[in-house]
Amino acid sequence: MIKYLTNSKYALALIFIATILLYFRSVLFDFSPLDEQWLIVENKNLLQNNCFLKSFTQPLGEIYYRPLLNISFIIDAKLGGLKPWLFHTTNLLLHLLCIFSLFKLLKLLCQNSLYVFLLTIIFAIHPSNLHAIAWIPGRNDLLLTFFLINAIYCLFKFNENKNRRFLFAHLLFFVLALFTKENSILFPLLFVPILFYLKVNRKNKLALVSLYVLFVVLFLMAKFAVVIALPAKTVTNFYYFSQILKGFLIYVGKFIFPINNTVFPTAENSTIFYGLIAFSFIIIALFYLKKDKLLLFFVFLVGSFLIVISALAKLALVSNCDFQEHRLYPAIALFLLTMSQIKISNTKYLRSLTYVLALFIVFFFVISEINLGFYKTKRSFITEAVKHNKNNYMLHFMNGKQEFQSKNYELAIENYNKAVQLNRNNLELFMCRGNAYLEVNNYDYAIKDFNYAIKTRLEQKFVITRFFANIRFGEVINAINDLRLITNSFGNTFAINVGNIEVNVAYDKKMKQLNAQIQSQPTNPELYLMRAELFIAKNNVELTFNDLKMARALAPTNKKIEKYYQSFIKAYKIGA
Question: Which of 117, 46, 54, 34 is nearest to 86 (CA)?
């Protein structure tokens, strides 16, 4: 068996088989309820004309400049529409390409074929890579890693045969990485030490460094011409540093001990304990390094840490920020390159290391197989996320949406209640809960939620939602008031025209009901008062006055009717 594993073709074939066995069912998975919704499902630009060019001139979600990621989504959408299976298939194919690229680079840097096989298969099935593959937006890090590994590979190949084509390819991969994800601007900090390690001549070294700087500047100019930088949150240096350190230890722990992984890892469900243990492994590894490998070991190690830190730069400004593992994908590849530089000459130690890595591989495969199922549907994704994040309002909010779509309205209200308890500032929560109350015919609670949202922030969509709720429950006067609010505040011609049609239909229906009731109960003063309210809503003063007089005659001691009557004659200056 060992003989076959030292053969590149057999080893790579086995790695591919193991990867496909693990991930093939992900092809049939649905979109998750997270970023796929705005990146793909609700992204109308994916199927428009000139959408490829627009990827370079328009931001992604108003905050990202990642043209190549968007182009990859456009290609999938044009090939198969918005079908999840095609997007998942692309992610799996990109993972296989990254595996192949890492395998090639490891073969170049490490003479032990068995060790190369073990390190590559660890990358192929590592549980912390699951999020980059099974979660479609993780493609960003798949693409980034593919470009990074091949950029490094081209540098070593150039050093090997001095063919300048590898330098051009190296620069091309770097530029592609820049237009894939922003943290690639740090890659020169990895490339430059490699240039020194390879003893690249001074002329080529200066040319490459100059081009790195030029490409980074051009990329930043393109980015800031499209994406407006968000204002930075004010934090203390100590807080920022503590968050970076905490996140760093969480991520480092996931390199070696990916035990507490979940679909939505946050500070709430993550621990630094495994990160501290992982550091001890790194320190021990230093004792087994040969001096000629020391520099390359630290280059890859520091490179992997840089990727982790760059991923944490923005996250550290967010309370209870998420530590999703897709950001680890390129760092894990570099970390395995770091391990490839550990040379153990003692056969006994080498055999022990092989057994340990084999156990890790089996363990990782089992963990990945179990965790993969959580990505299957929106429901399984959210259920798992909420299970580990009891205090995350957004997850309860999304869970409520899923229950609402499944027509489990009581469960939807229950989840919205939890979300509201955790965050009353998101007014969409109140609107969604109000809609759920409507579905269980609880008009009063629904209107209470709508009123709170509109009072807090007057938005047209909020008023329109309340308008249709009033129409649905026959509250014609309230609907008319909402229509007037839309007219005065927003002047939306379409909404007003549609609203008028709805109001007229509801008005006629309500009027017919009241006429029939008055005909059957001609001495009921409340019915005349209700019809008077309908008449005044349409500014029909004469008919309003007639009904008020009738109601007053039938109930001369009714204070409510008398108050309404007196207010009316005063407002319209009608003589008693």
Answer: 46
